[in-house]
Amino acid sequence: MTVKRIGVLTGGGDAPGLNPAIKGLVYRASERGIETVGLSDGWLSLLDPPFDPVPLERSTVRRWDRDGGTNLGSSRTNPFKTPNALGERIDRSSEVIANIEKLGLDAIVACGGEDTLGVAARLSQMGLAIIGIPKTIDKDLAGTDYTLGFDSALRNVTEVIERARTPAGSHGWVQVIEVMGRHSGHLALWSGVAGQADIILLPEHAFRYENVYRLLNDKLGDSTSHPRDPQHPRYSVIVVAEGAYAEDGELIIMDDRHDAFGHARLGGVAEVLSRRILSDTSYEARSVILGHPQRGGPPSPVDRIMGLMFGARAADAVAEGEFGNMVSSRGVAPACDLSLVDISMVLGKIDTVDVSRLYDTERYHLKGIGM
Ligand code: F6P
């Protein structure tokens, strides 16, 4: 089949790196004689007519490499579980396929995480010509070392940890910082290391309050009231992943609404932990949930490079008819090697922190790093 016209969409949580990927795709596709159109708000645009595909010329996307988020918009639409008029969630995947045909699209490039690419994998099994581009600040997709957005989020969280030191130091607080990542602790672990947090709590290993108190005591002693004694640390920073939970506790959710993929909104573990520190120790504690700004701002250099490369590689895959695949990277720019992997790899599994290799379960930190 000769591919002449393709549609690109972005689904799930936005992430810096998506717009560079679209630019990379459009530029390389045009070199290969393929026209690209943008589909707004993820899979939603293929379910709810009227359709409004945006023609993506080189001139349209020329400046997109600098933009955070996604200029195409995003949603958490699941065509396999979409509410009908009665509010029942039904399978509308055949409508997606029919609408792609109506739009005269020969193939789809879907940029997303486990949910968006999970839909892509299932549509591919139904015969749709599709290529995936991996994106999520959680960096938890199977089959690739890098997912767009992770490096920018790492930069954003590290900056906040840095800023949190000033008030914590001035007032002698234990500052608890809650970081995204749902069920994988990559972002919490590496931002905690980069920002030199004292304690890092991950979804992959249930923590013990007593151990947190012991670690605080090891650093701070009995008191934090030593403002003029440079030898005596008087504050501490704890980074906690939103999906972390205590051994005798449970996952803490913001509210019990679930999205179309069955995910609850996580959030609140930092507040629970800081209240426990306040009630069980003599330390003053404060908490902050970083929330969506973690995903905000312009893409980092790594996300720009990886986005442009992922997009271009996807265009080549389309031109060569290598459908049913996701672009994958071994390593991260500049030392990376791109290839294609079967997109069904993303179904039913996520990539989490390898606790036995990386995490010190006594010190709640990266293994083998002097603290
Ligand atoms: O998957 C990306 C992510 O940012 C997770 O880290 C987080 O749990 C979730 O999205 C938040 O969902 P929403 O963007 O719908 O609030």
Write structural notes for this entry.
The chain is an alpha/beta fold. The protein folds into two domains: 5-149 and 299-346, Rossmann fold (3-Layer(aba) Sandwich); 153-295, 3-Layer(aba) Sandwich (Rossmann fold), CATH 3.40.50.460. The protein has helices spanning 18-31, 58-61, 93-102, 114-125, 150-171, 186-194, 209-220, 269-280, 301-319, 355-358, and strands at residues 5-10, 35-38, 54-56, 82-83, 89-90, 107-112, 130-134, 173-179, 199-201, 236-241, 253-258, 264-266, 284-289, 325-332, 335-342, 359-360, 365-366. Strands 3-2-1-6-7-14-15 form a seven-stranded mixed beta sheet, with helices on both faces. Strand 16 and strand 17 form a beta hairpin. Helix 1 (18-31) runs parallel beside helix 9 and helix 5 (150-171) crosses helix 6 (186-194). The N and C termini lie far apart (58 Å).
Topology:
Blueprint: E1 5-10, H1 18-31, E2 35-38, E3 54-56, H2 58-61, E4 82-83, E5 89-90, H3 93-102, E6 107-112, H4 114-125, E7 130-134, H5 150-171, E8 173-179, H6 186-194, E9 199-201, H7 209-220, E10 236-241, E11 253-258, E12 264-266, H8 269-280, E13 284-289, H9 301-319, E14 325-332, E15 335-342, H10 355-358, E16 359-360, E17 365-366
Parallel strand pairs: 1-2, 1-6, 6-7, 7-14, 8-10, 8-13, 9-10
Antiparallel strand pairs: 2-3, 4-5, 11-12, 14-15, 16-17
Helix pairs in contact: 1-9, 5-6
The protein binds 6-O-phosphono-beta-D-fructofuranose.
